[in-house]
Specification:
By secondary structure, the protein is an alpha+beta fold. The chain is about 30% helix and about 30% strand. The protein has five helices and ten strands. It has helices at about 10-20, 35-45, 50-60, 105-120, 185-200; strands at about 1-5, 25-35, 70, 75, 80-90, 95-100, 130-140, 160, 165, 170-180. Strand 9 (about 165) and strand 10 form a beta hairpin. Helix 3 (about 50-60) crosses helix 5 (about 185-200).
């Protein structure tokens, strides 16, 4: 990771316009067809949440804007990305766990299982400060129509939230919200990412 000059990037105008905006976050909602994800997970014995996180990382890795993030009053460029998941720890509270993204599903799954288990037992967050982290929160037990993330003014990371997936006659759907800082990307980049996420789910294979 390194600081870069916003004026020398494609985000120069956005940096000038949105860095000091009181509410610079934008939220998109999208309903995904996760039928293949559910079937694949059951067939392979893999967690649905892990597969969602992997597909998110895979789709994000194809959009160059995900490798830049406004931090404080600076624009930082990263070489790697990670996907965060919220974990219920053994104390009955929640902890945060960053999982480094790998294009190899087996490797990502192994890291996911190892790191989340570590966080459950230690009740301590696992943070990766040298990667651009995509936050996620899965409220898998609850049937919700959507959620807008809180903007703290401290963390500008993109963030995704979803609830319980819903079974329809011929498919299984999941509504997600995607919150992003307007300095990091425009609406077209966010829409491209969400489209890519659906494609990654559709093309999931061992």
């Amino acid at each position: 990771m390194k600081e870069i000059n916003p004026g020398e990037t494609s985000r120069a105008y956005a940096f000038e316009m949105w860095m000091k905006a009181p509410v610079p976050m934008v939220t998109f909602f999208k309903t995904l067809d996760v039928s293949r994800l559910v079937k694949f997970g059951k067939r392979k014995g893999m967690k649905f949440n892990m597969l969602m996180c992997w597909c998110i990382g895979k789709a994000a890795s194809r959009v160059k804007e995900f490798y830049m993030l406004p931090v404080g009053d600076k624009l930082i460029q990263y070489d790697t990305i990670a996907v965060n998941t919220i974990v219920a720890n053994k104390a009955g509270e929640v902890s945060s766990c960053d999982i480094p993204f790998s294009g190899d599903l087996t490797e990502f799954n192994g890291n996911y299982l190892t790191l989340t288990r570590q966080v459950v037992e230690s009740c301590k967050n696992h943070d990766l400060t040298d990667s651009m982290v995509i936050g996620t929160s899965a409220l898998a037990q609850y049937d919700i129509d959507g959620a807008v993330g809180m903007y703290s003014g401290i963390f500008n990371n993109p963030f995704m939230i979803w609830g319980k997936y819903r079974k329809r006659l011929f498919k299984t759907i999941l509504t997600v919200s995607f919150q992003f800082h307007h300095t990091q990307m425009d609406g077209a980049h966010a829409a491209t990412f969400l489209h890519a996420l659906q494609l990654e789910i559709n093309h999931l294979k061992s």
